[in-house]
Each structure stands twice: as C-alpha cells, then as structure tokens.
TrEMBL record:
One of its GO terms (molecular function) is guanyl-nucleotide exchange factor activity. Gene3D superfamilies: 3.30.450.200, 3.40.50.11500. InterPro entries: cDENN_dom (IPR001194), DEN5A/B (IPR047278), DENN_C (IPR043153), Tripartite_DENN (IPR037516), uDENN_dom (IPR005113). Coiled coil: none annotated. SMART domains: DENN, uDENN. This is DEN5B protein. It comes from the Eukaryota. It holds the Pfam family DENN. The keyword tRNA-binding does not apply. Keywords: Guanine-nucleotide releasing factor. Residues 1-261 form the UDENN domain.
C-alpha cells in the first residue's frame, strides 16, 4: 500500500506502482528517470476498481525539469485493465474481510456493547449503517470484476500535447478493441519512436497513428513558443476572476502557488 491510508476501504486505497516496460532502454543525452516517471505517471499510486465504478480513461501531462534547466514533457493516458490473477483477487477479498471486521468492531464499540451480547446490543441505527457498510463497502470475488489502473506514456522534448493525446487514445483503442489493428502494436510504437522526426522550427509534420493521421506544428524562431495546451480548460478550472488575478501576479513577478488534489 502506498502511504498510510488504511482507514480507507481497500478499493479506495492506493498501492505502490512500478514501470513495467519502457522503450528505448536508454538514451545518452536523455537518460530515463524511472523513479520520476513512475511517480508522475501515477501521482496517487496504483488503484483498483470494480464494474460498479467509473473507469473512463483519463489523460494528464507532466514536466521533468533537470538541473541545467532543460525540460522533458510527459503525456499519460490512464485506463483500467481487468485483473486476471486469482491471487490478487483473493488478496482484495481478504483485505475487505479484514476492513469490514474492523468497521464491525468500531460500530459495536460505538454502541457500548460487549462481545457476549453483540446481536442484542446493536440498535436499529447501527444495524442500518452496518447493512449499508456491507452493501457498498464490499468485494465479492464470485460476483464482482476487479480492475487495476495502468498507464501508457509518451515522453517528448517538446510539448506536443494534442498529437500525443491523439496517438495515446488511438493506441488505447487498439489495445481494447475486439478487432486487431491493421499492423501489430509494436510497429506503431517503433514508428513514433524511431521513424517520426521532430518537425523543424516553423514547419508542420503529418504522421500516421493507429487509425487516423496526426498533425503537429512547431512555431518558427520569431513566433511565440509552443503552447499546445487548451486554454478553455484553464478558464474552466480557475474561472475568469482567478485567471485575471494569476495573470496580474505573473506581470508583477510575484511567487505563485497552485494547489490541488
């Protein structure tokens, strides 16, 4: 388990994640920082869900800034994959049995009852809360399907967010589709890693994803730096007044701290 979140139910806890594979293995001028990528791909850790939970894929981005000021950009698509390991499913049910036993004990303690008269001492309110607890806070290995979070990530020298987003979504669709893509998945990964060049300044580049072509454009030397992030999301998240205040603080060269979950 990642962090001290044992009070949470097992499906609401986060677990320690790890990098399963990365390609290429290493680049001399851009070494792979496994710990940083692992932490930034899954900042809250590994998580589990069941068929009753929302499992829509989510995309987020991150920046790794090195000591010399150079930056590397990461774009991550997080999705949920069915757990096929019987051992993990059994462990999850055991965690729930332990958790519910602790909750049962706390309900009993709150009603000041002894173990000898447990059934007779729980009042109607405690019994109702306990029934809700067992209904909504349980995992049945014979009834429920367990899913675990997984990430696919692209690490790039420039923030081509829209292009990376489109490629990751197409790759995810190919992984989950009933019909296999035209070519093996490895060929699409090899293509974007080794065959798609970085567009020169002031030029655009069109390359093929899994299903549809993808276009990315790089500003020229006399243009504003590449900013491929949607401004609409900034307005939706911060609101107009807050955004004006942040912009004012930027112009006044004040220190700014953005805090979120």
């Amino acid at each position: 388990v990642a962090g001290e979140n044992f009070d949470q139910s097992p499906l609401r806890r986060t677990f320690k994640s790890k990098v399963l594979a990365h390609y290429p293995q290493n680049i001399e001028w851009n070494p792979f920082d496994q710990d940083a990528v692992n932490m930034l791909c899954m900042p809250k850790g590994l998580s589990f869900r069941t068929q009753a939970d929302n499992r829509d894929p989510q995309l987020h981005s991150f920046i790794i800034t090195r000591e010399d000021g150079s930056r590397t950009y990461g774009f991550v698509l997080t999705f949920y994959e069915e757990v096929t390991s019987k051992q993990i499913c059994t462990a999850m049910q055991t965690l729930y049995q332990m958790h519910n036993a602790e909750q049962y004990s706390s309900v009993c303690a709150s009603s000041s009852c002894s173990m000898d008269s447990l059934a007779s001492s729980i009042d109607e309110g405690d019994a109702t809360s306990l029934a809700k607890l067992q209904r909504y806070n349980s995992y049945d290995i014979t009834r429920d399907t367990l899913y675990v979070s997984k990430c696919i990530c692209l690490i790039t020298p420039l923030p081509f967010m829209q292009a990376c987003k489109k490629f990751l979504i197409q790759l995810y669709k190919a992984v989950t589709s009933q019909q296999p893509p035209p070519l093996p998945l490895e060929s699409y990964i090899h293509n974007i890693l080794y065959e798609v060049p970085l567009p020169p300044p002031g030029r655009s580049l069109k390359f093929y994803g899994v299903y549809e072509p993808i276009i990315c454009q790089r500003p020229g030397p006399n243009e504003l730096p590449l900013s491929d992030y949607p401004l609409r999301e900034v307005f939706e998240l911060l609101g107009l007044e807050n955004l004006v205040q942040v912009f004012t603080c930027v112009l006044l060269e004040m220190q700014i701290l953005l805090y979120s979950q």
